[in-house]
Amino acid sequence: MIEIEGKSVFNGVAIGPIAIFVKVDTQVRREAIEDPEAEIARYHEATETAKDQLQALYEKALKEVGEESAFLFQSHQLMLDDLDYVESVENIIRTQNTNAEYAVAQTGDNMAEIFAMMDDAYMKERAADVKDVTNRVIGVLSGSGSAGMRADVPSILLADDLAPSETVQLDKSLVLSFVTRYGSTNSHTAILARTMNIPALIGVDYPEDCEGKTAIVDGALGKIIIDPDEATLAAYQKKKEEEEKKAALLQELKGKDNVTKDGKKINIYANIGGVKDVASVLENDAGGIGLFRSEFLYLESDDFPSEEEQFQAYRKVAEMMGGKKVIIRTLDIGADKQVDYFELDKEENPALGYRAIRICLTRQEVFKTQLRAIYRASHYGTISVMFPMIISLDEVKKCKNMAELVRRELDSEGIPYGDVELGIMIETPAAVMISDELAKEVDFFSVGTNDLTQYTLAIDRQNPKLDDFYDAHHPAILKMLKMIVDNAHAGGAWAGICGELGADTTLTEEFLRMGFDELSVSPSMVLRVREQVRQTDLSAGG
Ligand code: PEP
Ligand code: MG
Known about the structure:
The chain is of the alpha/beta class and 542 residues long. The protein contains 20 helices and 17 strands. The strands form two sheets. Strands 1, 2, 3, 4, 5, 6, 7, 8 and 9 form a nine-stranded mixed β-sheet that branches. Strands 10-11-12-13-14-15-16-17 form an eight-stranded parallel barrel, surrounded by five helices. It binds phosphoenolpyruvate and magnesium ion. Magnesium ion is lined by residues 388, 427, 448, 450-451.
């Protein structure tokens, strides 16, 4: 039995076999071959296998995420049959007497380059698809398969780190827990674990030879136990059953109000990273979406998502929420969330650098495209917008001007849009200190406590070495929260919290006393926070 410490990003107990996430080595060597026709036959055979894999992925995606996302795998199948592609591979094998892996890689590179040079944004995006499908065929040819989790029973997934595009392809029903060597509390994997309500650890230096062994993940204590002895296993099985009983009790709170014993109400919304998280929002009976981290649309894409693509995603979320409020946070990249195609420079202090609203206000086309998509989608539900990382009144005015410009453009094009509330995130000490003035400019504040804590305590939220210094309940933060909510109300705005602190049930009573109108938490925390609210009695002193 070995016990390895890590850092918890979500609580809970998982018990099961270990599956290690396999990354594919797509480095291809050029090799001379004797029989080009036999090599071409090998290529065709690999293509058929790749198409079978894609068909299986298509059917799985169709069930799990719907027609629109599943279509990707169908288009990949079609690409493999593309005559130009096939002829190019055959030609390279015949004329250069080279192996199929090399011919496929060359063809994929050439075609991706052609797509990337096209003016049409949609065609540009196909470059990534060609690369993807090419890597799949190379994986089959070289026998390394495709990237993924080799498991057919629910397992504890161990990985160095997981890119958003890798998590998208995972069969979530087979993941009991995420355990990664790298990554941070705010990594995509961490957010996904919270959304899926499964324990997750980061910073775990696991041995390479543990595949298939039984393990226990203790999310609360931040450790993984590999090859547990019988007594440990039995103790954890009991703990897990108790957790399941508690979770079942929480289900009874569905449909109930978020109201304290003495009648004070609060909205409990949920945080999401994309369309696929909405199911979990609805399942946990959240009153709305308090933070849609729209940057995941950009992170999951190989190029700027078009207005149309964004519109479809926002519209879908708005429609699925059936009129409940959906607050879309405009693009918040930079710092920990890097997107290659933005070609951002390397910075000495990325958290204090060119990020979030600073990018939007200087790359106005990107900003305008997103706002147009949001406004268009607002016709199909109740959408609000909020701007991240605000530090000044001037920035808020510029954001509002851009929103006004977009509305005028849509008016002149005869495109309908709804009534969109405009809000800002309060996540810098500067915004806190001028929150009295900011409140007069916007409809609402949403406090990003993750960044507010980082900037107030001068503690890099990505640096695990500073954990001991990180005090989420620091009096400076609590005083700021009170100041924010008072200034919001005095200026006619409402105030919520969408950072992780909002889900801290030891503070729920304090948030209610301060007067917060909304808490937005990961979907799996909605019912736990509701339970806490319902157990609170504000008339009982405090
Ligand atoms: C925050 O900073 O608290 C927040 C909600 O935004 P993010 O975690 O995405 O930076
Ligand atoms: Mg933030």
